[in-house]
Write a structure and sequence with these properties.
about 350 residues, alpha+beta, 9 helices, globular, binds 2-OXO-4-methylpentanoic acid
């Protein structure tokens, strides 16, 4: 019955032309959940083979209370953005990279994962089925959230006997509440986001559960988010709760080296490549917090945050400001170059953009 309701809804959407755009106030978009029309579900067999993925109406999914994801956090998230171009067509940015990162995370968490083509097909089908929710050009984008979870029931700590891959989508605007205005970061002194040998370099759901209390504390003090330091020396800059960090000093662009405790962001890697193509010197190395405090510009990158300038960092009660509340010149240049490619406005020359 669910499947037939799904095809009726899809047929109606395309027939009536409502497939073009939903009646929605696009000016209100932030980064909050807006329910859309369809989601994609694909389950694995007990031998870990994914088959028969399908679109179903967006809504709650059924999970056994003994599922591994609910009890032991055996789960991964991904995040991508799709943009609507002026001609109405839709573009995606480097989706195969997300598929590969999910496969790497799945390997670490002892889960089978969809093949790259299966991941891409699920993502594309979900976007096309929810096409009317892709914001008009310049008003935002469609955030795509693929999930992989141990959905099978298990009591002792062990890999789940079955897995589920889900894709849902949501129209979004800016991640931080003040849009593109420079954000304020509070350095975290008590907690760490990750530790050597653990899972800081994959997108497992537990990494996000562990950051929300420090994030709440920072937000209650008026900051946008938390900046984490390395757990061993408590000295080297790692990342923010939901994004990677960069600094600019004397026109060189520097970002923390991926030492295993930092998420290998796709926007991070793209920013490095774009900066090098623009002629900047880019370094991936350890950055001591004192060095960050002495930078000319600081910015964050991530699918959700895109490229967000940092206006202020507070460390041990010392407040350092960058750029007098304005976006730095290098940050602005990189933001413009990155988003022009992501939106399909500029040629990337690297085959990053996938046209749907
Ligand atoms: C993303 O940037 O897509 C993420 O997954 C970060 C998320 C926690 C908002």
């Amino acid at each position: 019955a669910r499947r037939s309701r799904c095809s009726t809804l899809m047929a109606a959407a395309y027939r009536t032309g409502t497939a073009d755009l939903v009646d929605f106030n696009w000016e209100t978009l932030g980064f909050q959940l807006v329910p859309t029309d369809f989601m994609y579900i694909m389950r694995s067999s007990t031998d870990g083979v994914f088959t028969n993925g399908e679109l179903v109406p967006y809504g709650p999914i059924e999970l056994n209370p003994a599922s591994a994801v609910l009890n032991y956090g055996q789960g991964l998230v991904e995040g991508l953005r799709a943009h609507r171009k002026e001609d109405g067509s839709i573009v995606l940015f480097r989706p195969a990279e997300n598929a590969l990162r999910m496969r790497k995370g799945a390997d670490r968490l002892c889960m089978p994962a969809p093949r790259v083509e299966q991941f891409l097909s699920g993502v594309k089908q979900t976007i096309l089925a929810n096409k009317r929710w892709v914001p008009p050009t310049g008003k935002g984008s469609l955030y795509i959230r693929p999930l992989l979870m141990g959905s099978g029931a298990i009591l002792g700590v062990a890999p789940a006997p079955q897995y589920t891959f889900v894709v849902f989508v949501c129209p979004v605007g800016h991640y931080f509440k003040d849009g593109l205005s420079p954000i304020s970061l509070l350095t975290e002194e008590e907690y760490h986001r990750a530790a050597p040998g653990r899972t800081g370099d994959i997108k497992t759901i537990g990494n996000y559960a562990s950051v929300v209390s420090a994030q709440k504390r920072a937000k209650d003090k008026g900051h946008s988010d938390v900046l984490y330091l390395d757990p061993v020396h408590k000295k080297f800059v790692e990342e923010v709760s939901s994004c990677n960090i960069f600094m600019v000093k004397d026109n060189a662009i520097i970002t923390p080296l991926l030492t295993g405790t930092i998420l290998p962001g796709i926007t991070r890697r793209s920013t490095i490549e774009i900066a090098r193509n623009l002629g900047f010197q880019v370094e991936e190395r350890l950055i001591a917090i004192d060095e960050l405090l002495d930078a000319d510009e600081v910015f964050c990158t991530g699918t959700a945050v895109v490229l967000s300038p940092v206006g202020c960092v507070v460390y041990h009660g010392r407040r350092v400001e960058y750029g007098n509340g304005k976006v730095g010149v290098v940050s602005q240049q990189l933001y413009s170059a990155l988003t022009a490619i992501q939106k399909g406005v500029a040629e990337d020359g690297m085959g990053w953009v996938v046209q749907l």
